[in-house]
Amino acid sequence: MSCSPLRIRHVLHRQNAKSRVAISVRIAAAFIASALLAASAAHARNKAAIDAPASLPANEIANPPGLPAMGKWMFTRDGAIAHWLGQIVDGKKLHEPINVILIDASSSSPDQARARLRAAAKAAGYPVRFGHSTGYRGFISGDLYSQLPQGRDDAFSNRIFEETNNHGRIFGPYASEGGYVFIGAFSRESVNFLHDPPHRYASFKEARDDFARALSTHTDYKQSGVAPLDNAISDDPDVTTGDHDGLAIVIRMK
Predict the structure, then answer these.
(1) Strands, DSSP E only, in the chain?
(2) What are the residues facing 43 on neighbouring strands?
(3) Of 16, 127, 226, 233, which has the fewest CB atoms closer than 10 Å, so is most exposed?
(4) What pLDDT digit, counting tens, does each position of 150-200 carry?
(5) Per-residue pLDDT tens digits for 89-109
(6) Residue 108 to residue 166: CA distance in whole angstroms
(7) Cα R_g (the chain), whole angstroms
(8) Is 122 exposed, middle or buried (0-12, 13-18, 19+ CB in 10 A)?
(9) Helices 205-218 & 110-123, crossing angle to 10 degrees?
(10) Cα(208)–Cα(166) distance, rounded to whole angstroms?
(11) What was the pLDDT predicted at 52?
C-alpha cells in the first residue's frame, strides 16, 4: 500500500507533535521534581538544627522572663549533662552551664540567622576553629538543637586549640515572637602541654564575658542585660559549675 506525500507529511507532523508533547511533559515533570527537591532541602536545612523533641525534668529547665523555656545545661549526644572533658574540679564533676543567649530580631529565616551568627562570631574574633570536642546539644522550648558549628571537631574560639583559649558551642535558632533565639555554652581552657591533661578548665565567666564584649564591640549584636537561669551549683558534694554565677548574658541583634 502506497501513501501520498501529503499523507506522509501528516503522519510525520503527528509523530513530531507527540514527541514534542512527550518532551514537554518530561521537562515539566523534571521541573516539578526539582522544585519539590529544592523545597524539601530548604525545609531540611531549616530543621537540621533540631535533633528531636525532648522532655527534661523540670529542675533542668529555666524560664527566664520574656524568653522561651530553655535547658540549663549543654547536653551530650546521649542526653547527659555535659561534663567538661570529664575533668574533676575540687573533687567534683564539672557541669557545663548555658551562659549566653543571643536574639536575632531581623533575620527572615533560620538559615539567615545562622549565617549572620557565624559571620558575627568571626568578626568578633571567634571564628570556627578545630580541635574541640563536639556532638553537643541544647534544649529550647521542647526541642534539642544540634550545636553550631557542626564540623567534626569545631567550636567558636578566640585562639587555636594549642593555646589557652575561650571557646563555645551555640544551639538554635528557636523562632520566637521577639526573633530567633540561640543559647550557648562558653568556657575558658588553660593549655599547658607539660601538664596532664594539657587542656584544663579555667573559667566559665571569663569566656562568657569576653564573647559578649567582643560581639558588642565589633558587630551588630549588642549586650542588653542578663537572664537568671538558676544553674550555678556550689553546695553539691558531687557536682560543681566552677565560677559560673547562674546568669546568661543576653545579646541582641536588632
Answers:
(1) 50-53, 61-62, 70-71, 83-89, 92-95, 100-104, 128-130, 137-140, 143-148, 154-157, 165-176, 179-191, 199-203, 221-228, 239-240, 247-253
(2) none
(3) 16
(4) 888 899 999 999 999 999 999 999 999 999 999 999 999 999 888 877 789
(5) 999 999 999 999 999 999 999
(6) 30
(7) 26
(8) middle
(9) 100
(10) 8
(11) 54
189 and 202 Cβ atoms separated by less than 8 Å: yes
Predicted TM-score of the model (pTM): 0.80
How many Å apart are CA 93 and CA 84, to the nearest integer?
A: 8
Alpha helices in 48-87 (DSSP H): none
pLDDT reported for residue 40: 44
Kindly tell me if the per-residue pLDDT of 35 is higher than 50.
no
C-alpha grid cell, residue 211: 564573647
Rounded Cα distance between 171 and 50, Å, is 9
Identify which has the larger pLDDT, 197 or 228.
228
Distance CA 81, CA 208 (A): 19
Cα–Cα nearest to 87, from 210, 245, 196: 196
What span, in angstroms and rounded, lies between the C-alpha atoms of 209 and 226? Answer: 11
3-state SS, residue 143: strand
The C-alpha cell that represents 196 in the structure block: 596532664
What is the per-residue DSSP string for 109-122? SHHHHHHHHHHHHH
